[in-house]
Amino acid sequence: MKNNIYSIAKCFQLEGSIKSIEPLGEGYINDTFIIVTEGSEFPNYLLQRKNKQIFTDVPAMMDNIEKITSHLKGKINAVGGNPLKEAMTVIRTNADQLYLIDEEEEYWTVCLFIEDSVTYEKADTEELAYAGGKGIGKFQRMTSDFKEKLTDILPGFHNIRYRFEQWDKVLSEDPVGRKKDLRKEIAWIEERRDEMLAFWKLVEEGTIPIRVTHNDTKINNILFDQKGDVLCVIDLDTVLSSTVLNDFGDAIRSYTNTGLEDDVDLGNVSMDMTIFKAYVQGYLSETKSFLTEVEADYLAFSAKYITYEQVLRFLMDYIDGDNYYKIKYREHNIVRTHAQFKLLQSIESQFEEMKFVVKEALLTTASTLKK
Fold first, then answer.
1. Closest Cα partner for 69 from 53, 86, 57, 52?
2. What is the structure's pLDDT at 39?
3. What CATH code is assigned to 126-368?
4. Distance (Å, rounded) from C-alpha 334 to C-alpha 246?
5. With 70 as the cut, is the pLDDT of residue 361 above it?
6. What's 2-112's CATH class?
């Protein structure tokens, strides 16, 4: 494969000669490599083989990324920033395409490697939670006036009405006979169905606006400079048009969990209010200028919504015979279900305080919210 990967890299518009190409990261979805060039005057690059099983329309995905990064670069240039460091830069092929299809019909892309940047794997301090909120908030603020159409490359993503259609079908079929032992867990889903559909109806009818969303808001998708300031958000494969509340809710689900997503000890799992407060403050420092009152009102609820959706998806996959999420053992998905439900319960028990935290953070800037 080594010779092949060099020939693939040479199909892109790279500056300088290639010194080495090495794997980078664990590659849960895409396979990523760093291209190191000869000489310090030339940039380095990231080469990726996109997972076409997950991203079934890579051309549309890359078109979305190109639109968003072009928009971001325009904003950065307008304020005298550095677009090569403050936004992803897609490198085109020698044929001026956004991607290459090799002989095995695999899709390859290249972007500029941003030197001297820092990433973190976990937001386990107030400072990092604040920075993470600021990073996603900055991305949303800079794309809040984006007007072009994005292709929906992940149909139904975070759409609870679509998830319930899947859920009802799996329950009716019960393909591996597990439903009979899950009355309690199924009740968790059904007891909250109306509440979740009522929220999504606000999105469907336009009361909650549709904007650009990142959809993978973990902190290692944010680059920081050496001083700890946000440079840019990376990994734009999942960029879609949806409600920004999805990004906020998923960030809270991942940042504030004191346990693991598949923790077998439910005593470890809770929502950390200190981390929540820090994230809210960082996020609103960037987004208060464009959020509507309705969006602000539902920030806290979005954490319930996204966590509930994840409970449903883990449980649904378990009932369906474990066809979507990779599992390490037979009960893995039901363990995930219980751990996520414990997190949901913790969020629900602190919900009024969460709403108060958001309200307090907005008090001095309430006049900037749009009606």
1. 86
2. 86
3. 3.90.1200.10
4. 24
5. yes
6. alpha beta
Cα(353)–Cα(120) distance, rounded to whole angstroms?
28
Indicate the Cα dihedral angle 7, 8, 9, 12, nearest 10°. Answer: 110
Say if residue 26's pLDDT is above 80.
no
Residue the block writes with tokens 């079929």: 173
Would you state the pLDDT for residue 332? 96
- Burial classification of residue 172, based on how many CB atoms lie within 10 Å of its CB (0-12 exposed, 13-18 middle, 19 or more buried): exposed
Is the separation of the CB atoms in 295 and 209 below 8 Å? yes
CB count in 10 Å sphere of residue 32? 15
**C-alpha angle with apex 72: 69 to 73, nearest 5 degrees?**
85
Q: Does residue 215 surpass a pLDDT of 60?
A: yes
| 233: β partners | 222
Confidence category of residue 3, pLDDT binned at 50, 70, 90: low
Alpha-carbon span 312 to 340, nearest angstrom: 9
Q: Decide if pLDDT at 5 tops 60.
A: yes
Sequence ranges of the domains in the chain: 2-112, 126-368
The two tokens of residue 92 are 């085109």
Q: What are phi and psi of 309, to 5 degrees?
A: -60, -40
Report the C-alpha gap between 65 and 271 in whole angstroms.
33
Residue 235's identity, in one-letter code, is D
First and final C-alpha spacing in the chain: 56
Residue length of the chain: 371
23: left (phi over 0), alpha (psi -120 to 50) or beta: beta
Dihedral, 328, 322, 307, 169 alpha carbons, nearest 10:
180
Strand duo 211-213 + 240-242: pairing: antiparallel
Instruction: Decide: 175 and 166 in contact? Cβ < 8 Å.
Output: no
d(CA 268, CA 257): 9
Q: Tell me which residue has tokens 């378990």.
A: 318
Mean pLDDT (the chain) is 94
Radius of gyration from C-alpha coordinates of the chain: 21
3-state DSSP of 243-284: CHHHHHHHHHHHHCECCCCCCCCHHHCCECHHHHHHHHHHHH
Question: Which is higher by pLDDT, 122 or 65?
Answer: 65
| Residue 162, token pair as written in the block | 């679509």
Give the span between the Cα atoms of 147 and 229, in whole angstroms.
28
pLDDT > 60? residue 63? yes
